[in-house]
Specification:
Number of strands: 36
Structural class: alpha+beta
CATH topology of the largest domain: TIM Barrel
Number of domains: 4
CATH class of the largest domain: Alpha Beta
CATH superfamily of the largest domain: Glycosidases
Helix content: 10-25%
Radius of gyration: 27 Å
Shape: globular
Strand order of the largest sheet: 20-17-16-15-14-23
């Protein structure tokens, strides 16, 4: 048996109608098909028995049954990821011949596409609930596929879940992943946008043999994977239709049709509708509108920032409906660089570094944006740290802009979660699973509650908004503080008993600069804290660039309390980085401290190396290489 699947067709209160189907692979003539039945069991209980019949030259079974007290599968953060134990047993005259077992989540998924003032919406709707997609693009976990081990999938997908992600896009230039990848996404509530493996090229679909081979590939991929609840979209290709519009090397037509469109616009949607009507099909990524990369329709890839040399502040000008690719490069972890380069080879523009950045002018771009935001640097250690902090700040800026537009923009998938080799790249986790600053930033900017403060120079005001992804109204307390670089709180405002409406964005305040004491704007920082029960959500925003600030020694200190380190500061501390001698995944890193905030970090190491942005901008201070010993209280000794 093969391709056995179950999907939820509709739900009425606690009862759901479930459709099951599959194929029977027969090496020989089965004789009288009337002797064969497929018995479907759910949680070891027989729910339906179905005949098999020929559909074309294939043996197929299909039917429906009602399931009482149904438990639904939800994306991470919106509910449980319940998986039913299904078993499909082929019986011959009542005797079992073979069987197939699968763990299947039941849910409905649609793409909500409705006309509005900006064009047309592009919203994933699961079990009747709109979902803002928060996640990243996934590439193969190794350049040598046979080296990928089960632990690689487990570590990376758990990291995605722990960073509050609910979607990964399997990029069409990679592979159909191992079933363990999809099983983990099922278990952890990670929705999968699944590209078919056609990317960045014209394909000869005018040749009948190629067209048939491509259709067979897609048909088999859908049959093999369709029982995974995590897959919420089949997508025809990566950037081919974008290329037809905008790439000089593409756009050839045969018999009036772009090379590939017979597949993406004719064959693949029919195959998906026949083999798997339980989820939507989308022709390409990006796709929609008069041009494939339209802002008003479908999904959009935003690469004017970084690839087009534009600064990340330009994300504020991008109002796409679903941002399925955008990215910003940085260095990998220092230990990863030590793996492929000697200390003598660790030169920013040295040949070894350039060969480990496959983006044209990649290192130059990293330097350009470091210089724009932090000032000039030639020190290699500072280059590593500042590139990671700059990448994190860039993606944070974009995500905050798009999440504040919920659901006018309905998803952000940054490029990329992982790496396939040790390299300078757009990833948030490097090849050896070492998290960059962006990974820890993502934990915060993808949280279910996100406070956002932003200075609007044109309005001479500070806007305060809070995004609430919870499907319930939520009562919170909030405090907004403004600190100067000397560690003085110069202004604050508290908001008690705020009600955040469910699944919405609340505009909390618009504060004019007249309310704030006159100070040098570049030396002030806004810090916002939202408290909901025992959970706390922090964020901050600057009035100017880091390079304009007169940072002073933040005097970061910490003590160990059990398995955690508790951090405090005397003055503003940005990008506080906790490096451990061994590789361990911390609960937080690259965080911001103000004197009124305490940050608790789970850390098993007893000896750590702590730095902050101050150490990399002010080398003359003597703190650049400071190693801070963990302070123990008398009770802990």
């Amino acid at each position: 048996m093969t391709g056995c699947t179950a999907s939820l067709e509709e739900q009425d209160d606690k009862t759901g109608r479930v459709r099951v189907s599959g194929y029977v692979a027969a090496g020989t003539d089965l004789g009288d098909l009337g002797d064969y039945r497929v018995e479907v069991r759910v949680q070891d209980a027989v729910v339906v028995e179905l005949p098999i019949e020929y559909v074309g030259d294939e043996l197929h079974f299909e039917g429906t049954f009602s399931l009482q007290n149904i438990r639904l599968w939800f994306p991470n953060g919106l509910g449980e990821q319940y998986l039913y134990a299904f078993e499909f047993i082929l019986n011959n005259d009542g005797a079992p011949v073979c069987s197939e077992k699968e763990r299947i989540g039941l849910r409905t998924v649609t793409l909500t596409r409705e006309q509005d003032a900006e064009g047309e919406s592009f919203i994933f709707t699961v079990n009747g609930r709109h979902v803002f997609a928060k996640g990243a693009n996934w590439i193969p976990a190794d350049s040598i596929l046979s080296w990928i081990q089960p632990d690689d999938y487990s570590r990376l997908i758990h990291m995605a879940r722990d960073a509050n992600m609910n979607m990964l896009r399997v990029w069409g230039g990679g592979i159909y992943e191992d079933k363990q990848f999809y099983a983990l996404c099922d278990e952890l509530g990670i929705m999968v946008w699944q590209d078919f493996m056609f990317a960045c090229a014209e394909v000869p679909d005018h040749l009948e043999w190629f067209r048939q081979l491509s259709d067979r590939e897609v048909r088999e991929a859908v049959r093999n994977l369709r029982y995974h609840a995590s897959i919420v979209l089949w997508c025809g290709n990566n950037e081919n239709n974008f290329g037809f519009d905008e790439w000089p090397m593409m756009g050839h037509k045969i018999n009036g049709e772009y090379l590939g469109n017979r597949l993406y616009l004719q064959d693949f949607p029919m195959i998906c509708a026949r083999e798997d009507p339980s989820r939507p099909y989308w022709p390409s990524s990006p796709y929609g509108g008069d041009k494939a990369n339209s802002a008003g329709y479908g999904d959009q890839h935003v690469w004017n920032v970084w690839s087009g040399w534009a600064d990340y502040k330009s994300y504020a000008d991008e109002n796409g409906r679903f941002i399925s690719e955008f990215g910003f490069e940085s260095a990998p972890d220092a230990k990863t660089i030590d793996f492929f380069a000697t200390k003598k080879e660790q030169n920013i523009l040295g040949s070894v570094m350039l060969s480990h950045n496959k983006k044209v002018e990649g290192q130059e771009r990293i330097l350009r944006f470091i210089n724009a935001h932090f000032g000039l640097t030639t020190d290699f250690g500072a280059f590593i740290y500042l590139s990671q902090l700059d990448q994190a700040e860039a993606i944070k800026f974009g995500v905050e802009h798009w999440r504040a537009r919920k659901y006018r923009t309905a998803g952000t998938l940054y490029w990329q979660l992982n790496d396939s080799w040790p390299v300078f790249s757009w990833s948030s986790v490097d090849y050896f699973k070492r998290p960059k600053a962006l990974y820890y930033y993502a934990r915060r900017f993808y949280a279910d509650i996100l406070p956002i403060v932003r200075y609007e120079p044109s309005d001479k005001a500070v806007s305060v908004t809070v995004v609430n992804d919870r499907y319930e109204d939520t009562l919170v307390d909030m405090a907004l503080e403004i600190w100067d670089t000397g560690g003085t709180k110069i202004w604050e405002k508290k908001y008690g008993g705020l009600r955040l409406l469910r699944d919405s964005v609340s505009t909390v305040d618009l504060i004019t600069m007249d309310e704030i004491p006159a100070k040098t704007l570049s030396d002030m920082v806004m810090h916002v804290r939202v408290v909901c029960g025992d959970q706390q959500y922090d964020n901050y925003a600057r009035f100017g660039e880091f390079r304009e600030m007169h940072l002073m020694d933040p005097e970061v200190s910490y003590v160990r309390e059990g398995d955690s380190l508790v951090f405090r500061c005397t003055r503003l501390a940005f990008g506080v980085h906790v490096a451990t001698e061994d590789d361990c995944l911390l609960s937080d890193d690259f965080f911001t401290l103000v004197p009124s905030v305490v940050v608790r970090v789970k850390c098993p190491s007893d000896r750590i190396h702590v730095t902050s942005l101050y150490d990399y901008l002010d080398k003359d201070s003597g703190h650049g290489e400071a190693v801070h010993e963990v302070t123990r209280t008398e009770a802990q000794k």
